[in-house]
Design goal:
Strand content of chain A: under 5%
Helix content of chain A: over 70%
Largest sheet of chain A: none
Shape of chain B: globular
Order of helices and strands of chain B: EEEHEEHEHHHHEHEHEEH
Structural class of chain A: mainly alpha
Radius of gyration of chain B: 18 Å
Number of helices of chain B: 9
Mean pLDDT of chain A: 83
Chains: A mainly alpha, B alpha/beta, C mainly alpha
Number of strands of chain A: 0
Mean pLDDT of chain B: 87
Distance between the termini of chain A: 63 Å
Low-confidence stretches of chain B: none
Helix content of chain B: 25-40%
Oligomer: heterotrimer
Strand order of the largest sheet of chain B: 6-7-8-3-9-10
């Protein structure tokens, strides 16, 4: 009954209506799941913004205080001071570490291990960093509750993001460009400062913004390193606690008073709006990058002419040295 | 000659770019219908329109009137259409599984058959492409252990097991060595007994070997069609130049 | 190479070592501070659920070479169990939702919609955890307490653990739900990325054999993307384990009682560290702090282990392209 001349009509095909029904069900479930997630996202934003916008006033934004009296100014400024401090500690190792991983590594195992450490540093729970910060920075190194202790705790968390995203932006640069530069006798310093950093500027900025957005929303690292300061701004870098917005959210909602709840909502609103803007800019780095490149185009043109552009034959012939170094 | 597919005024746009620009073509049943033309001329896109693979590609818009077996292409269910019009791609694309599973895949998806029927259908399909004798003892071997030419024949068998009316082949030999290429060309000549073959190629000598009816596509239009491979009534100088290049 | 370059290379080398040094320093110090507790508690730490800081008003006593307040005993079982239950529930919710979302985004929605939608989902990972806690307290907990949990209790009572008393909205369900929101973007990104990175030839081959989009998605998820699917889930789990503030706020903060039903309150390891550190500070013998360090050490070790395993399974290649997410 079966032979090689058998044609389609003799095979018992599955009814494609049942397969189509499964397909339609999967489509429906996919849309439902997406709708569910988006509905929750909207719910979060709507509740926070409704609660925050309804209670906000200039007095709250312009005075120092805590959740029982006064305003949020110490929290707003303190958050950015802490994040700035964290950036100060993480930016240099992040960017220069990424340069090393990009250009000078001769042993793949070493660079692989370094990347692995960077990756798993992101998975250290924030409260573990907080406890470490308290025991080691605040007590053992005697920094006290302070900007430096809080900044270091945030920096530990920001560092891997900055390093990873910077390295990734370096890797997105055309390798011919870099090889050509090496072929023309550029050294590591030249390549780093004239090609890697300018070309990856948008990517690095995106990494900074992302890490800032994460750091601004952190609480657990700060509770026992920056503690909290309701009197105003820290008086110095060490031994002077700092206020921050996430503390207002956490502490405010746990207080029984409506005033404290209001402060919690306003702080949460400021946080999610800032974070959303930062994430948006960092995700749409290409759009932002296009803008940046337009601004820096004249500078880029000069760099291009001096260091990168070369007649193609010369570039190909003279490539060997640069290529070798690159391929390592 | 019986026409199995008629295409009238086909237009395909990718974004603002026109890939196919008012194309008319007839495909004759149980013939090797060859489409020759320069790369980027819209050959692959034409094939993708016929089994509506273009539905999946974002930004591609297809307009025009295509009839397959007397019925408008858009009135077919896409899954059913792809069963009746099989496709073989430029590079062999075996799935990462055994030889047997590769060939059986489409049938498992589309039909309920017993193990013994399945075994026989797989064997038939492999015999049709002349691969059965080479792999009969190793049906459980991973498909990527086969050579490139064998992989491409496996992909043909994989399409044939669904007993399609039409088999479309998109430059099926372009990534193969000359010996494998020759085997597949011989195979194509044999396939037209049972199937309608649409072969896309930019290789004029291949067209000469296998083609029953040849269409020349240039800049998204069919500029000449003929039985055999000789085009006589071409006026456009660019097309003449292109043919000249091909002949060399 | 000239001196300038030598110095530059050395400097960048040092900088690239910083993450490793930081990680090792943290591990070393936490281990150092945890040591008294490890010796003092022994296996009790993992077998008892009683966390008793002892009577600090009475003079400390010497136990196994360490001065501790009388009656002190540190059993972390409740915290460990809380962490595992809430994280498991989070994965149970987030995994199928993420799969469906990535299927919808990848297979069914127009390609133009993909990037904005994935960005919106990824926004979940950027929302500060205290904001989740706030939303959990004002929106989720009342909803659970008044509607969902009573409904579950009267309609799903036959499932073990579903018949208990509904007391507050906080606890296992609230924590699991909130954690699932926080980890869903991670799993979704990894899945979308791995669907994307499956070879086009294979996708076209499948479709031209007549596979529906669902069949295509199922095939990819169970074959090509299988490892990154599991890897993504583990990365999500790793994050759920260490999440602190949100579960502190909606967990219920119970002490010395193991959860008896799905409506019970919990107290995860991370939440317990925050909650008890305040009272441990300045406590005379230091064993209290040490016990929290031991809890931190254990939490860190399992988070790192799960994360490492996830990365190994998913492979770095599968994570490329989603690297600038909060993984």
């Amino acid at each position: 009954m079966i032979n090689s001349d058998m044609h389609g009509s003799e095979i018992k095909w599955k009814r494609h209506s049942s397969r189509k029904a499964k397909d339609a069900a999967a489509r429906l479930l996919g849309y439902l799941a997406l709708g569910f997630m988006l509905a929750i996202l909207i719910s979060i934003f709507a509740y926070i913004i409704k609660g925050g916008a309804g209670a906000i006033n200039w007095n709250i934004l312009s005075t120092y205080g805590n959740t029982s009296e006064g305003g949020l100014l110490n929290g707003i400024i303190g958050t950015w001071e802490l994040v700035g401090m964290g950036l100060l500690f993480s930016l240099i190792p992040g960017v220069f570490g990424a340069i090393y991983l990009t250009q000078a590594v001769s042993n793949r195992h070493i660079s692989g291990a370094m990347r692995l450490f960077t990756d798993i540093l992101t998975s250290v729970p924030s409260i573990v960093i907080g406890l470490f910060g308290y025991l080691v920075l605040v007590i053992r190194f005697n920094l006290g509750y302070s900007l430096v202790a809080g900044g270091l705790a945030l920096g530990v968390m920001m560092l891997p993001y900055i390093m990873r995203i910077t390295e990734m932006s370096f890797r997105n640069i055309q390798s011919e460009q870099i090889m050509n530069a090496y072929a023309l006798g550029a050294d590591h310093v030249n390549v780093a400062t004239r090609i890697l950093l300018p070309q990856a500027s948008a990517g690095i900025l995106s990494g900074i913004l992302l890490s800032v957005s994460i750091a601004a929303g952190e609480t657990a690292q700060l509770l026992y390193t920056a503690s909290f300061n309701s009197a105003g701004l820290p008086s110095g870098l060490t031994h002077s606690p700092v206020g921050y917005l996430t503390y207002f959210v956490w502490n405010g909602i746990n207080q029984p008073s409506a005033y404290a709840h209001n402060l919690a909502f306003i702080s949460a609103m400021i946080l999610i709006i800032s974070v959303t803007v930062l994430i948006f800019i960092s995700k749409y780095e290409d759009v932002v990058g296009r803008f940046l490149r337009r601004v820096f185009a004249p500078l880029g043109a000069v760099i291009n002419r001096v260091f990168i552009e070369s007649p193609p034959e010369q570039g190909v012939k003279g490539k060997s040295k640069g290529e070798k170094e690159w391929k390592k | 000659m019986e026409k199995i597919i008629e295409i009238r005024d086909l237009k395909v746009n990718a974004g603002k770019k026109e890939i196919i620009n008012g194309l008319d073509i007839d495909i004759y049943a149980n013939r090797v219908n060859t489409i020759v033309g320069p790369s980027g001329g819209g050959k692959s896109t034409l094939l993708r329109c016929l089994n509506r693979l273009t539905d999946l590609e974002p930004g591609i818009r297809v307009n025009g009137n295509v009839t397959f077996q007397g019925k408008n292409l858009m009135d077919y269910d896409d899954v059913e259409l792809r069963r009746e019009i099989g496709m073989v791609f430029q590079r062999p694309n075996p799935f990462p599984m055994s030889i047997y599973d590769n060939v059986a895949f489409g049938l498992k998806l589309q039909a309920k058959v017993s193990k013994s029927v399945m075994d026989m259908m797989v064997q038939n399909a492999l015999e049709e492409v002349g691969l059965y004798d080479e792999v009969r003892d190793n049906l459980k071997r991973h498909a990527n252990t086969l050579s490139g030419g064998q992989q491409q024949r496996l992909c043909i068998a994989r399409a044939l097991i669904l007993r399609p009316k039409v088999l479309m082949m998109d430059e099926p030999t372009s990534s193969l060595d000359p010996v494998s290429k020759g085997r597949i060309e011989d195979l194509i000549k044999g396939l037209k007994e049972k199937y309608t073959v649409i072969l896309v190629t930019h290789d004029m000598s291949q067209a000469r070997k296998v083609s029953d009816y040849t269409n020349l596509i240039y800049n998204g239009k069919i500029v000449a069609s003929s039985e055999g491979t000789e085009f006589t009534d071409i006026e456009d100088q660019d097309v003449k130049d292109y043919l000249g290049e091909l002949a060399e | 190479m000239d001196t300038k370059n030598k110095f530059f290379n050395f400097f960048t080398f040092l900088m690239s070592l910083v993450p490793a040094l930081v990680l090792i320093t943290i591990l070393a110090f936490v281990l150092f501070y945890a040591w008294p507790s490890i010796v003092f508690n022994g296996t009790t730490f993992f077998t008892s659920y009683i966390w008793n800081v002892g009577i600090s008003s009475r003079p400390p006593v010497l136990v196994r070479g360490f001065l501790v307040p009388p009656n002190a005993s540190f059993g972390a079982l409740l915290f460990i169990e809380s962490t595992l239950i809430s994280s498991a529930l989070a994965i149970l919710i987030a995994f199928p939702v993420s799969f469906l979302v990535s299927l919808g985004v990848e297979m069914y929605l127009p390609a133009r919609a993909k990037r904005p939608l994935v960005s919106l989902i990824e926004l979940f990972a950027g929302i500060p955890s205290v904001v989740y806690g706030l939303w959990g307290i004002v929106v989720l907990e009342p909803l659970l307490l008044n509607t969902i949990e009573p409904w579950m209790r009267s309609n799903m009572y036959f499932i073990p653990g579903f018949s208990g008393e509904v007391l507050t909205g906080s606890g296992i369900i609230a924590s699991g739900l909130i954690l699932s929101l926080m980890i869903a973007p991670i799993i979704t990104s990894v899945m979308v990325n791995s669907f994307d990175s499956a070879p086009k030839e294979i996708k076209q081959g499948l479709v031209s054999l007549g596979a529906t989009k669902w069949e295509l998605g199922k095939y990819l998820a169970t074959n090509y993307s299988r490892s990154s699917t599991y890897g993504g889930a583990l990365l999500g789990l790793g994050r759920a384990l260490g999440e602190t503030m949100a579960v502190l706020m909606v967990g219920g903060g119970i002490v010395n009682v193991l959860p008896s039903s799905i409506y019970s309150g919990i107290n995860t390891m991370a939440a317990a560290i925050v909650a008890y550190l305040d009272s441990a500070i300045g406590q005379g013998t230091g064993i209290n702090l040490s016990a929290l360090a031991e809890l931190s050490l254990f939490l860190m070790v399992i988070s790192l282990a799960v994360n490492l395993l996830g990365r190994r399974i998913a492979g770095r290649g599968a994570l490329r392209g989603v690297e600038n997410d909060k993984l």
